[in-house]
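Intended use. Records like the one below are meant for learning the mapping from a protein sequence to its folded structure. Do not use them to infer anything beyond what is encoded.
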Amino acid sequence: MAKFPHSSNTGSRSGNSPNSNSASDSSSNSVWTVTALNQQARGCLENHFSAIQVEGEISDLIQHRSGHWYFTLKDEESQLRAAMFKFQNRNVRFNPENGQQVLLTGKLSLYAPRGSFQFIADQMAPAGLGQLQQAFEALKQQLQSQGYFDQLRKQPLPTMPTQIAVITSPQGAAIRDIQSTFARRYPAVQLLIIPVAVQGDGAASAIANALDLANHWAANNPPTTDLEALSPGNACPDAVIIGRGGGSLEDLWAFNEQVVAEAIFRSQLPVVSAVGHETDITIADFVADMRAATPTAAAELLSPDRRELLGLVNNLTGRLQNHVGYRIEHARLRLQALAQRVKHPSYQLSQYAQRLDQLDNDMQLALQRQLAQQRQTLIQLAARLQRSSPAHQLDTQRHYNHALYQRAVRAIEARLASHQQHWRRLAETLNVVSPLATLNRGYAIVANSEGGIVRSSDAVAIGDTVQARLGEGELSCQVVDKSKR
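Structure written out for the chain above:
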């Protein structure tokens, strides 16, 4: 982030002219917003403390579900809030834990929304000597606890492979050793070379992707032995060799990455790991189905010796010749015995003709019996159909519907009579309680000039005009006297 100059009026809330060029005037007269001040402080920190390293102990580690890491880095006297985002922490070669001493590379910054001072880490490594070895041991322990090294999940190697995928550098000595060993011991095999970088940035991902590609070929392409027609479109390897020549721990580190271990673990093809020399041990060696001390040893594991195969073929050829000779002699003797038992064909033909006549008679009788049974069944079905005639059923249903109609008419008439009688009773009851009936008996309803009902003599004064409603008509009256009784 660019540093904000002191002479700028950005974030100022004063009434000064934005064209003022006096840094002292701006500093003394401007009032900064909190946001602008935090942004300027963050710019200063990131410009002056970028690409620095800091060492300390991890505490309060939070590995958020978003993939970001948040923790505190502390020493004996101070502590510093730190964050490492997922795009950087996915390259960390070990699992950080609380209490672990680490070396961080990154920059100082300030989280503006809270104004909190923090360190943004781009790289993380175990502190002190043997950082790579510590990372190696940490990943080894993690994968072993997850079952990546279990012998029960390891696959057997094919005894007579037709195609083998080799994942290595095309310029290294390993590929030449593998090719020469197969040419000497088992030239019938087809090698599918998948070139990758075996060290440096991106090497581990390239190896993992190449292993996934070999599995994709095996799962989607039919096997082929046509060397001239071989291409990625029809390749179908039986096993995979991954490896390289010797080197330092740093040189071999691509084979200690978790992404390579996971690719070997999920591989459906048997994997032979041939990394470095006999004394070199990598994570790939532990996860692979078989570990070879060298690339040459890996080729020997997957290639039967040609001389041993020729000896086996010669032995099997002799055994086959002896067995075929025995079978031929046995067949000759049996043929002689059968020839003595063979009868003239006319005898067999007469037997077959008699048998054919017998079968014809049996078939005729069977057809006659079946026709008789079908005829009897047809007669029975016709009788049942007559009894179940739709005309009879329709007549029965017609009488039934007429009876239902008559019952419905009577029920409706009865219900109407009942409702009419009930209505008359209700009308008589209503007439009894009707205020009109009360008025017809000589009573009146008195209302004041506003239309309100007068229920007491106190509600009117002498001289007021009231309306009296009678059983027939109304009267307009004036109050000349009032009293209570």
